[in-house]
Structures are given as C-alpha cells and as structure tokens.
Amino acid sequence: MPLIHSEPSYQPPFWLPEGHTQSIYTALFRKITKLIPQRERLTLRDQDFVDLDWYVEGPLSDKPLLIVSHGLEGSSQAQYVRGLVKTMIAQGFNALAWNFRSCSGEMNNKLRFYHSGATDDLDDVIQACVDRGAKHIYLAGFSLGGNLTLKWLGEQGQNHPNLIRKAVAFSVPLHLSSSSRKLARRENGLYTHRFLQTLLSKAKEKAVLFPTAVDVAILQRIKTLREFDDVITGPLHGFKDAEDYYEQNSALYFLDKIQVPTLVVNAQNDPFLSPECLPASLACQWENVFLELPTQGGHCGFYPSDYRGTLWSEQRAMNWFLNKETINYVE
C-alpha cells in the first residue's frame, strides 16, 4: 500500500514545540481515571507467567476484543495503554492489556525476560482469548509492543487466526539496531537513564536468582541500551549479541508478510526513531500495511492542541478500527 496521510493530521499545542516535549509531557502529566481492571495471572507454555488486565463486560464473544501491548519497561497501567482502552470501551469494545514478563510489579520465574521479538508470549495471550470465546480480535502495540505485534503478524502470514480483524502500532522502532544507536546519543540521555534504571535493577534481581547466568560485575559497566542488549537481552534469549538480536527481531523485516490490515504510525520527530524507522520509500511494497508519518507527535505523545481527554493517536486508532478514517494516499 502507498504511504498515507489522514485528515486531520496531528497538530500539537504551541507549548509542546518539538519531539522531546511532546514525548515527555504526555508520559508524565496525563492521567487516566475510572478504569478498574480485573487482574488475572496467565500461565505460559513454559510454565512462567504474565499478568493480564481485563476490561470485559459479559462473554468475550459478545463484543470485539482489543489486545494492547505496552512499550519498553512499561506496563498495562501506562497512560497510553489505558487511554486507548478507555477510548475503545466507549465504542463498545472489550479490552485486554497485558504485562510482559517482569513488568507487572513481580519478577517472573524463568531466567528469560521479555524482548522486542518475544512473540511466543503474545501468541499465548491471543490463544487464551480465542480459547475463551473471543470472535473478533483487534491488536494494538506501542513502541516495543508495536514491534512485537507487527513481528507476530508477519510470522503468522497466511496462517493467522481468521478472527484477527485489524491492527495498529504507534511509535515503533521498526529497525532496532539504528534505533538503539539514536537512543545512545547525548540528547537522549534522559530516556536511556530512565530505562536502564529499571532494566539493571531487574538484571541484578535475576543475578540473585540465577547467579551463574548473570554477571553482576558486567552490569556495573553498562551505560547504554545497546550494551544492555549485548550482554543481557541477547545472550539470555539465545542470540549471539545485540546486533544478532536486533537483526532477527526488527519488525521492518516482517511487514511484507502481514496479511491483516495494519496501520503503523511513526512521528517524524520521534526522538527514539532513526530514519530507517520511517521507511516511506518501502510503503508501496506492503500489501496490507499502511504507513503514516505525521511530522509531529514525539514518542507515544500525540497530545492534541484541543485535548478533551483523548489523544490524537487514540482517535486515530478508533477511526482505523471502525473504518471511519479519511485517507489521502501519497504516491
């Protein structure tokens, strides 16, 4: 499909002039209230667990079900997750927001964590929904969760469950290697520091549980996310190093195999994303993936100038899922 441009496109308020402020303000100051989920622990195929937050009325078969995957070191309680859930509940959807391994406030049992390509866990979550009667499933992912969602869809190819109706992914590091290099820049030090604080804390906890598998001394020397992926994420999940992990799991390499109508929205001023994550020249090669590249929005930001409780991204996802969008195709 060609590159697309929706109407109206995102316009930030004047006091959020660029990508950093658009990313940070939404993450720190937006609050979503009056959503109380039912928490469930799902046992995975390897006998580890993930925690699920359900927002359901009646049998799963009665309404379309939205499954939302969060970003790096996020959770089912992230504002961007809860905001989309609230928006789609108002449109008659049920929703499930799930926590990756170690992201629900309790460390998982196995040596492995989660990562950008751990689609086996998403597959288990989707299968649990199918087994419980879901008939119409919609997928949404943010950042790392967007990469995970797109990779899963590409891996399924023609064999995807026919009850998967549509998908949307926002702020996706489609090319993980170049995105990690951009995050390592000095101007992105705030984000790197924030992510590493919790990632290293989790790795140290794993070192206590699995002392022969995680070297605490190495952890002290890690200064970037790529270094973390080189010595922790990659080796713990069966990859040679960070680059091997990035190359095997970047969603960019799976988009041409997706058979479900899928919208990918990446802001051009997203401080996390490299030019390779904005692949306008490739859009015409994808049969079922629609790429939208608004000039503004930051990373999972999209706080609109006329904010009334809903982000532009949530309105965009709703319009996509409900076939209400007005699309201009850019050749």
Automatic annotation (TrEMBL):
Domain named AB hydrolase-1: residues: 64-303
Recorded GO MF terms: hydrolase activity
Gene3D superfamilies the UniProt entry points to: alpha/beta hydrolase (3.40.50.1820)
Origin: domain of life: Bacteria
One Pfam family matching this protein: Abhydrolase_1
Keyword Hydrolase: yes
Keywords assigned: Hydrolase, Serine esterase
The keyword Nucleotide-binding is assigned to this record: no
Family: Belongs to the AB hydrolase superfamily. AB hydrolase 4 family.
Protein name stated in the entry: Alpha/beta fold hydrolase
